[in-house]
Amino acid sequence: MTEKTPETRDAKLVCRHLWKLFGARGAEVLAALGPDPAPERLIAAGVVPAVRDVSLSVEAGEIFVIMGLSGSGKSTLVRLMSRLVEPTSGEVLFNGQNLLAASEAEMTMIRRHKMGMVFQHFALLPHLTVLDNVAFPLDVQGAPRAEREARARQMIELVGLGGREGAFPRQLSGGQQQRVGIARSLAVEPELWFLDEPFSALDPLIRREMQDEFIRLQSVLQKTIVFITHDFDEAIRLADRIAIMKDGAIVQEGTPEEIVLSPADDYVRAFSGAVPKAKVVRVASAMRAAEGEEPTAEVAGTLTVAEAAPLFLNGTERLRVTDGQGATLGHLHRADILDLMLGG
Amino acid sequence: METAALPARPVLPRWSGWAVALLAFLLLWKFGAGLVPWAFDYPRGWTVPAARWITGFTKWLLNEATFGLFTFAEFTRFIAAVIDFPYRIALSLLSTGFLKGEGSAAVQITPPLSWVAVIVVFALIGLRAGGWRLAALAAACLGFIAVFGQWQSAMVTLASILVAVPLGVLGGGALGILAWRSPAFERAIRPVLDLMQTIPVFAYLVPILFLFGFGPTAAVVATLIYAMPPMTRITHLALARVPGELTDLGRMVGCSRRQMLWRVMVPASMPALMVGVNQVIMLSLNMVIIASMIGAGGLGFDVLAALRRLDFGAGLEAGLAIVALAVALDRLSQAFAVSKAGAIPTGNIVERHPYLASALATILIAGLVGLVLPAVQSYPKAAELSTGRFWSDVVAWINVNFFDAIEAVKNAILLNLLVPFKRFLLGLPWLGVAGLLGYAGWRLGGWRLAALVAVLAGLIAATGQWEKAMITVYLCGISVMFAMLIGVPIGILAAERERLWTVVRAVIDTLQTLPSFVYLMPAVMLFRVGDFTAMIAVVAYSVAPAIRYTVLGLQGVDPRLLEAGRAMGCTPRQILWRIKLKLAAPEILLGLNQTVMFALSMLVITALVGTRDLGQEVYIALTKADPGRGLVAGLAVAFIAIITDRLIHAGARAARTRLGLGEGAA
Description:
heterodimer; A: alpha/beta; Rossmann fold; CBS-domain; 2 domains; six-stranded mixed beta sheet; globular; disordered N terminus; B: 666 residues; mainly alpha; MetI-like fold; 28 helices; disordered C terminus; P-loop_NTPase (chain A); ATP binding (chain A); ATP-binding (chain A); transport (chain A)
């Protein structure tokens, strides 16, 4: 919780006071009702508030997860960010450029070259092969066949579908179809990667596998990612930072650790309470200052407590916590770990 | 606090409004004749001369109307040319061969495609779309046509279908795309489409005759008007139903408007669009006979001529040839709708297009061989079969041996049912009927529906057609009643028996591909002309939707409810009456609606066997080439159709809401 303003030097995408009201006269109603009208008053005025006064900032290279239940406005929010849905008011800054001021032609160029999107139900074109589906965004841009197919083959290889280039979407399993969707969204080498509930339509086991795959991909690609999900565990697992949405507004924003350790309200607590703290809390947050004799065994501060716990199995009382360079940050005590794990 | 003391207001039962309305109607009917005679017989002086106006308007269009740059007559000539050019090519290819010179001086440069080549091409298309079985079916259908000596006529018909279908698909598709792009356009054309689909075809034959003259071009125009609306509807619906994610995808990858339409929307909705193509083909074939009244020639003309001569056998054979053509084209287009693109072939041009290459090769070889062997070029006369005489003999035999029995049945039904019902309807005051319909509209769908229904009914009276309209209603009503009495029980039986349903479905599918005229012929043979004959033909034609919708409705009932019924110990009879039929009622109502629509469209055709209703009026107008009279009568039929359709739909909607809400309370 070091920064309060949604802007920093490295911000890739910034939303400021973003509103979306569905209904014929959304903008008028919003202007008439003042800066922060209650949802009831909006509904009474005949508009449906989908996104209410959202401000957030997505840093370059991070995975920013927007988590919310159905109807919370998260899918609308991600579409506001690429102006697939026109915001009622507010600002969207992409690389510092205000997207709402961009012309339709500029927007088309930005979407073509700088953004990629993965869809919940894959949105594959049924009449095209895997290869043509992945090459589609490049084809739309008018890239020559040889070039776009070479690029598409690379992407198909990257997502582990090599050999299925000639298959049609209907011949693939759900997990494979979404791999095609991912490959397609990466074909244009986007700077900003939107994933709209990419794994929600998959079976739990496949979902887990795809999450691992996603983590692997991101470790290679280092994209800036906006990831939408309704699954709190998925959010905790993948996110660098999470924004939790309810009724169109963000109720809490922070790292997974912050959200689990200090939920902002009962709504967030209802999700975070079920998550074992040990799986979220990092060693660096659970350690104490180094004092007394230096322990021999060491542990990286970025691990979660659950990951570090097995190191105590041999009866050790304390571990030396190190940063990336091996310098000592503090000491991790067996008793603290036990309290944390037993306390849930 | 004040409200608490109010006593419960007596709630009128739901039927009390109906009781009042019916009572008012009865009073008007019984005692109004002396007081308000104009409520019974629409006064001549008040009649709107719509027929004269329309005739005048058509003449004005033809002789004086101009768009500034060009006149209306030039415009119609342009459309005629657009249709005529491809039609000439198709006809030359299939029937006449390419000619040089005009009329009798014409010299054939190349012969038309040989019958062998056409059959092979059809088989190849079948092979490409659906495999060997489809290829065999397509070849068999065409072979049937050749063997029964219908080849020449069938090729003339096929030529006009080959022109009408692409134009209908392109035109209908373009309108559908426009409707999808612009909601305002969609709102504007929807009523036009409604009208195009409900107005009987006969009614616009006359204006078309005026504008385009007698001949195949006019026939294609009429076919287009009839066959295009479903394509427009289906295109619009298919595009609107493309998942939102795909449109999002299109915008996300930066598609232009054109790329969006042609690269995303149209391919994604291809299966649905192919259903539209199939519809256009089938409706074009439905029009074959009617279109021959304004010069289409071909099989339709043969059927019509046979009907006029009362030559049952010849008519049946030509009719069956239309069916064979319809079955072949229907199955081929359906197979294309579900066929999946396979791996993309590679190699030289022949290897990449094996079907096209073999088709061209066959055409060439058959053409060359045909120069030497005439039997390859045109099917040898000596090998033709005809069963026409046999069928005529069968009919004659039935007439000789069972004349009295048939006559007795016919007269009994006529005297005891048809005539009294007709008298009853003709005695009703038009004002009362319009009012009662309006009240039904208000109860079922609010004041808009009430206004629509009452105004349309009033318009029928105002154009001086009330009496003829009532005869239409009477024939239609009786026929629909019989169709439902036959169709619903069959549907109930078939819904629970998988094997029976397979058989019944095959039968009604075939019945629906038969051109409506085919129904008329056996009825005329057995019962001669008159209302009874018309009724038999209409019932036979309109029983199919009654069966189909009943089965769909019953099979659509939630199986969990049936399980619950069984768990509560319902007998099968109780399950049928208290669960299934109750829940299927909205669907069966829609079936009733379709039955009425089918009956109305058939009724117009039965004018050929001497009914005295609006259909006859249209038919007379056609023979007298009076566009106004025909259109006004045709519109009256359309109004009856629209009134029925809107009321039944509103009723079905109300029933569904009631079933959804009132399960527990009732």
